[in-house]
Amino acid sequence: MPSRLSFVLAGLVAVGLTAPVQSFAQSAVEPGTPQSGIPSLPSDMPHGYLDPAGLPDSLAILRPPPPLDSSAFADDEAAREAASKLRDTARWSLAVSDADLHFPHAAETFSCAANLPISNERTPKLYTLLAKSLVDVGLSTYRAKTHYQRVRPFVLHNATSCTPGDEDALRRDGSYPSGHSAAGWGWALILTEVFPDRADAILKRGWAFGESRIVCNVHWKSDVDAGRIMAGAAVARLHAVPAFDADLKAAKAEIAVARAEGAMATAETCAGDEASSRPGR
């Protein structure tokens, strides 16, 4: 299994997701034959909603990453250069935070945009929905990742990233498409259904989540764009799974109760997100 995927999924079995992990094994679709290039999950890892054989095929859906001598790659380089000016700013700090897909941290990403604290304690059904869908959306990127093994920008330029502790794993994990971008956009698409009145803010945050990977110097712009495409494909597939729709319905009901009780995001929760709205982000 690619080391970066192991690192991310290991976060789902950390403290705060023990109970949901048990339900993953019980409620996930029985696994079929995985597509070539998509890793199988160990028994102690959480499973998503989709049969591995039914995941969107990123290798079939996406075009190859841009060649180094193409105008598209020139756009990638221009985006990298622009993002490099944000190093050590508030936007850089947000990119560091967005890089962490471990739960419970990752579940809080959209709390400000949704104007409601998202946590295993306060919103356990939504928390589980986000965790399980992360597995499906993340795995949907791996056929193209393993096939192309695109070199990441910090490697090509012999530079550093916003997460130096992850760099050894990232060097061994293909850059195209971006799994983080897929996760952020996939979550945004799902959350707009849970919080339809907050859709604009949620989609804006999901877009910024992908941009964080460019700011972090671990993905090219075209990686991020391709990740969003795979997110849309994965979420469309999820809606064909009864267990997903049941959990989505339960999350909506849970949020209705939380709102009726007056739950709202705090100014502290929203402080970091302000960086994604500033000019020159």
Label this structure with key terms.
single chain, 281 residues, mainly alpha, Vanadium-containing Chloroperoxidase, domain 1, 15 helices, globular
Could you walk me through the main structural features you see in this protein, from its secondary elements to its overall organization?
It is a single chain. This protein is mainly alpha-helical and 281 residues long. The chain has one domain: Up-down Bundle (Vanadium-containing Chloroperoxidase, domain 1), CATH 1.20.144. It is built from 15 helices and no strands. Helix 12 packs across helix 13. The chain starts with a helix and ends in a 10-residue tail after the last helix. 47% of the residues are buried. Mean pLDDT is 87; it is low at 13-33.
Structurally, the number of domains stands at: 1
The share of residues in extended strands comes to under 5%
How would a crystallographer describe the biggest sheet? none
Number of strands: 0
The helix tally amounts to 15
- Any low-confidence stretches, pLDDT <50, length ≥5? 13-33
Describe the secondary structure blueprint for this structure.
Blueprint: H1 3-10, H2 18-27, H3 58-61, H4 71-84, H5 90-99, H6 111-114, H7 124-139, H8 142-148, H9 153-156, H10 167-171, H11 179-194, H12 199-215, H13 221-238, H14 242-260, H15 267-271
Helix pairs in contact: 5-12, 7-11, 7-13, 7-14, 11-12, 11-13, 12-13
